[in-house]
């Protein structure tokens, strides 16, 4: 987070609260989220990313992707900062409802939404449902008919882009479960079907999301270009000018010094210019009067807003040197959490760093591996890090960049209760998601 510093005793301090105090008050492991950092990243997308779009399409709607991390308090921060919210299940929508999030600023995703989820969304009056299959078109039409409403829908288009990221988090190549294929003509068919049911379905626009943790903007460019092509085709073929277009999320963050992400301002500049150029090219050739107007653009960043705002605070339990042969050693530093609170290292080979947080040390740095307390050897939090060789039981370590897809992908593996989320701001800390208890773990057991 932006407000991290070391105090005079070498303790890490965030939002004006030092980690030793945090550990004493709330225990470890704990996710510590810097409220101001979260809010300022949200504002950077809302203002800096959006500014270059003003002259092109009047601005941008930023849908914070709640799958990255959502709880009632965070949903309220998102609402207060004037952003919209992307939810991907009835559960995420329930959090939004509990927070009183304005319904018209919610977009609902999912490749297999249940009838109950569609009912929940239309009952609440969400601003858009992003349609992902032909069955879903029928389901939404049925529920809308039953409720006597016209459902606002967008079509998720598989644009056929190979995003340069881990294969599990790339989503716009052909051979995967999301969306309607553009190359295969499915997207066009879906649009036809929706327009046939325009009594109960309101076609708002096209949507594409190419993947996550992406740095190379060329993927976004190809995707936007294809989406714009389809948008124009719909205008020409059906005379329908869809008012919105969503370019998805996926902006990468720096987990280690290896990456330097573009700022929201620079991203916005590049994307706005591309949208402007594509529409100008489309309209340049046409007769005056049948111009394709530029739809309102929206995006769905999750990681880029919440990822850097949080670090996980752990306490060191055991320290073990392992002989690798040829005189080489590796130090295994075990902490009081692991793959249950951060599965990303095990699942995606994700790179994290970490630092000794509770004190300063002049000791020699030693190549270490930070591991959890779960019973598998793949339970690694930080693969390689130089930690001082006097690190010992009771020290605190902080792993930065754990705001996105850590708590939200967490589990109770080995019946380890999940850590709390503690928000810090202006010298004060408060729990926004409490720590699980053993009673919570047992609460669902019947018998
Ligand atoms: N929109 C849609 C339709 C999405 O599927 C996603 C992410 C986003 C937006 C937000 O993407 P972001 O801006 O956060 O990259 N668990 C994986 C990431 C899965 C992403 C799923 N969809 C990870 O830990 O890296």
Describe what this molecule looks like in 3D.
This protein is α/β, with parallel strands linked by helices and 447 residues long. It folds into 2 domains: 5-33 and 307-442, Beta Barrel (Lyase, Ornithine Decarboxylase, Chain A, domain 1), CATH 2.40.37; 50-301, TIM Barrel (Alpha-Beta Barrel). It is built from 13 helices and 21 strands. The chain has helices spanning 19-26, 35-49, 54-57, 72-80, 90-98, 115-124, 134-147, 186-196, 218-238, 264-284, 303-306, 344-348, 438-442, and strands at residues 5-6, 12-14, 17-18, 30-34, 60-65, 84-87, 106-108, 128-131, 151-158, 180-181, 201-207, 244-246, 296-299, 310-325, 328-335, 355-356, 365-371, 380-388, 396-400, 421-425, 428-433. Strands 4, 14, 15, 16, 17, 18, 19, 20 and 21 form a 9-stranded mixed beta sheet that branches. An 8-stranded parallel barrel has the order 5-6-7-8-9-11-12-13, surrounded by 7 helices. Strands 1-2-3 form a 3-stranded antiparallel beta sheet. Helix 10 (264-284) links the parallel strand 12 (244-246) and strand 13. Helix 2 (35-49) packs parallel to helix 10 and helix 9 (218-238) runs parallel beside helix 10 (264-284). The radius of gyration is 24 Å and the shape is elongated. The mean pLDDT is 95. The structure holds ligand LLP. Ligand LLP is lined by residues 65, 67-68, 86, 109, 169, 209, 212-213, 248-251, 300-304, 344, 348, 404-405, 409. It is an enzyme of class 4 (lyase). Pyridoxal 5'-phosphate binds at residues 250, 300-303, 405. Substrate binds at residues 303, 344, 348, 376, 405. Homodimer. Its EC number is 4.1.1.20.
